[in-house]
Design a protein that fits this description.
mainly alpha, Growth Hormone, Chain: A, 18 helices, disordered C terminus, MFS transporter, transmembrane, MFS_dom, Atg22-like, transport
């Protein structure tokens, strides 16, 4: 990794650690653990899936509201890492605390999951904003994509350990219950996440900032109000955020609801865990490949590729019936999941003023998070109305199509930079 600086490597290693939360808590072990708890409490499959969707919506709404405000304040010298630290600590702590909630308390599980999700997503707002501090614009696509790639690789290690413990428990090879094995996975996630955040705390620093002023909070709200008022003057930024709002909704919903969806199809928890593990392995090289191809074909064209693949995923999901179908679906997602997220992050990072990165990534967060409210709610409501989760997933197609159409209006990198600098 000599091609990358210590700051770049330290920043990327956080993805290596935090991605364990994404796969174990957001996608794999927790949803299965929660679904089992809800089922044992007499909650129907469609209702428990809907409640999970509503919970994700609540968590993302909280972050959507806080993101721009906190981001604007964090643009001041020395504050970015402090805000990052607070949300990081919140996420790690409540991820670990999931292990201490009785398995029959499904509602309490969702509450603690909400707080952990707020911590993880909140930390990611400032982590993403650090991208402009650790690398150059020329290397931004590759660094962002490599971060996602390392995240997929790194997350497989605690995931394998967690799966091994759960499978051994299920087969009575080790003297622990399946419930306890799942709780051990939550603790492993928290420890892994915390361990690989250390290099970021040591080596990553805020290089771009606004000098401290009197009455920081009051001034920050004024700056935020001015940006909201003038955001349309950043034409490229505004159009990109609008496109991002729609297509990332589908991406986030597929990620967060996939395990619950698979459970509703009757796929066993063991098969789901294995499928998700292979998805992580396949996704790693594809995320890095997206970064490299973006240097040849531009990031925008690679975003088109990712969106088109997700449209195919949603259409295919409508006809899902067997475990093999779910395997095919997962592998399609794996080819583009990391790439579309990584290039969205770096494309946006090239558009925004570096000294205001936190503020703008706060808007990036609010557009992404509000989109993530709409998707899970759509899946949840549709699942309850129809009694079939397939219809909810299929309906996401329209979001990808709208996002792609708007993306066609976003200027290419050079023109986009000029457009984003037109500030009133």
């Amino acid at each position: 990794m000599k091609r990358f600086t210590k700051e770049e490597n330290s920043w990327m290693l956080y993805d290596w650690g935090n991605s364990a939360y994404s796969i174990i808590i957001t996608t794999a072990v927790f949803p299965i653990f929660y679904k089992a708890a809800a089922t044992n409490a007499g909650v129907s499959a469609s209702n428990s899936t809907a409640y999970l969707g509503y919970t994700i919506a609540i968590a993302t709404f909280i972050l959507a509201m806080l993101g721009p405000i906190l981001g604007t304040i964090a643009d001041y010298q020395g504050l970015k890492k402090k805000f990052f630290t607070f949300f990081f600590a919140l996420g790690v702590a409540f991820t670990a605390l999931l292990a201490f909630i009785p398995s029959d308390q499904w509602l309490l599980l969702l509450i603690f999951y909400t707080v952990a999700a707020v911590g993880s997503a909140g930390a990611n707002v400032f982590y993403d904003a650090f991208l402009v501090d650790v690398t150059t614009e020329k290397k931004m696509n590759r660094v962002s994509a490599r971060g996602f790639g390392l995240g997929y690789i790194g997350s497989t290690i605690p995931f394998i350990i967690s799966i091994a413990i759960i499978v051994l428990a299920q087969n009575d090879i080790i003297p622990v219950s399946t419930t306890l094995a799942s709780k051990i996975a939550f603790v492993i996630t928290a420890l892994w996440w915390g361990l690989f955040a250390i290099p970021l705390f040591k080596n990553v620093h805020q290089h771009y900032y606004i000098e401290r002023e009197p009455k920081i909070i009051q001034t920050s709200f004024k700056r935020l109000g001015k940006t909201v008022k003038n955001i349309k003057q950043y034409r490229a930024v505004f159009l990109f955020l609008l496109a991002y709002f729609f297509y990332i909704d589908g991406v986030g919903t597929v990620i967060s609801m996939s395990t619950a969806y698979g459970t509703d199809l009757g796929i066993s928890s063991t098969n789901l865990l294995i499928i998700l593990f292979v998805t992580q392995v396949v996704a790693a090289p594809f995320a890095i490949l997206y970064g490299r191809l973006s240097e040849k074909f531009t990031g925008k064209k690679m975003l088109y590729v990712g969106i088109i693949i997700y449209i195919i995923v949603c259409i295919y999901a409508f006809f899902l019936e067997t475990t093999l179908d779910f395997w095919i679906l997962a592998m399609l997602v794996a080819t583009s999941q990391g790439g579309i997220q990584a290039l969205s992050r770096s494309y946006f990072g090239k558009l925004v003023p570096k000294e205001n990165a936190n503020e703008f990534f706060g808007f990036y967060n609010i557009f992404g998070k509000f989109a993530s409210i709409m998707g899970p709610l759509l899946v949840g409501v549709t699942a309850q109305l129809t009694g079939n989760s397939n219809f909810g997933v299929f309906s996401l197609v329209v979001l990808f199509i709208i996002g792609m159409i708007i993306l066609t209006r976003v200027p290419e990198s050079t023109d986009a930079r000029k457009s984003s600098e037109k500030v009133i």
